[in-house]
Design brief:
transferase; 7-stranded mixed beta sheet; disordered N terminus; Rossmann fold; 340 residues; alpha/beta; S-adenosyl-L-methionine; RRP8_N; two-stranded antiparallel sheet
């Protein structure tokens, strides 16, 4: 039997165990807790390791995102012309005060996006022209497929549409070999100066501006001081007070019969009604003439000109049109401008 070494007896510290725990755990015995300094050191080390890993992950995600964005930007750049790149750069993000900002507080107003016009940009002009042309075609189609009354309601709600329409119309007229209104002006200028003219669908009232005779100018919107806004089926004139009625490219809408009836109401017996229209709108000239004569007119002249227009001259032979039940429905094809 071995005797206990009094140096390592019960309750005596064992130097080997002490040293081992000191190295492994930082304590001074098997059951001794970790020292506070060691704990803090290990905690800081773990935090630094986690922080390093987080930064590494974030950096990797940023690099990945940047790489994808770079690929997309390069693809877009290959598809865009230099002028398109310039236009793209002109699109700016602006806050409510107009200042550039990439971040906004949650309480700030929603961002506004604006397209600034690049200086001397041919692409901008081209896109603006195409947009204007598209809006003109849309409005033009609506005018030919609705009644004059409905069209007036639309323009009353948004008068800017009328400006858009006339700018688009002017662009179309510039391509024509001849503008029919010039024929009307030349004809009216040969009449006595006391002649009273009614211009249905006058637009900018070019006829009234160009002749000495008195001209009542009517259209859906009063684009200037010479124009009276109204529905052409109900003009503010008394019966038989007009010598010449003019429809120059204005027999639009689905109620052409109402316009012809109104012209017969205001023109005196023996007076003229002159119609200038696109030839392709008439399925049959003879049928159109027959239907108009039913309103109390008589055809005295017809001529096609400039390969795309036709001129009709009627004279009023009765005091008024017949009853509504006896009058035919006059229908013309819509004049739809093709997309260029």
């Amino acid at each position: 039997m071995f005797e206990e070494d009094p140096q390592w007896g019960p309750g005596s510290p064992n130097p080997f165990v002490e040293e081992l725990h000191q190295k492994l755990f930082g304590g001074t015995g098997i059951d001794a807790p970790f020292s506070s300094k060691k704990k803090e050191k290990r905690k800081r080390k773990r935090n630094e390791t986690d922080s390093t890993e987080d930064e590494s992950c974030k950096r990797e995600r940023r690099e990945t995102s940047a790489g994808v964005s770079g690929v997309l930007d390069e693809a877009r750049a290959q598809e865009q012309s230099p002028s398109q790149k310039k236009l793209r750069k002109s699109i700016s993000f602006q806050g409510h005060n107009g200042a550039h900002s990439s971040k906004q507080a949650d309480s700030s107003p929603s961002p506004q996006y604006s397209l600034r016009k690049p200086k001397n940009s041919k692409l901008y002009s081209k896109l603006s022209t195409q947009l204007e042309g598209s809006r003109f075609r849309m409005i033009n189609q609506q005018l030919y497929t609705t009644t004059g009354e409905d069209a007036k309601l639309v323009f009353d709600e948004d008068p800017e549409l009328f400006d858009v329409y006339h700018r688009g119309f002017a662009a179309q007229v510039a391509k024509w070999p001849e503008n029919p209104i010039d024929r009307v002006i030349a004809r009216v200028q040969t009449l006595p100066e006391d002649t009273v003219v009614c211009d249905f669908g006058c637009g900018e009232a070019k006829l009234a501006e160009s002749v000495k005779q008195r001209v009542h100018s009517f259209d859906l919107v009063a684009i200037n001081e010479r124009v009276t806004a109204c529905d052409m089926a109900h003009v503010p004139l008394k019966r038989h007070t007009v010598d010449v009625c003019v429809f120059c490219l204005s027999l639009m809408g689905t109620n052409v019969s109402d316009f012809i009836r109104e012209a017969r109401r205001v023109v005196r017996k023996g007076g003229e009604m002159r119609i200038y229209e696109v030839s392709s709108r008439f399925p049959s000239f003879d049928v159109f003439v027959k239907n108009v004569e039913a309103f109390g007119f008589k055809l005295v002249f017809r001529e096609e000109f400039s390969k795309m227009f036709v001129e009709f001259v009627f004279t009023a032979v009765t005091k008024q049109a017949g009853s509504d039940t006896d009058l035919p429905l006059i229908s013309l094809k819509p004049c739809v401008y093709k997309r260029r």
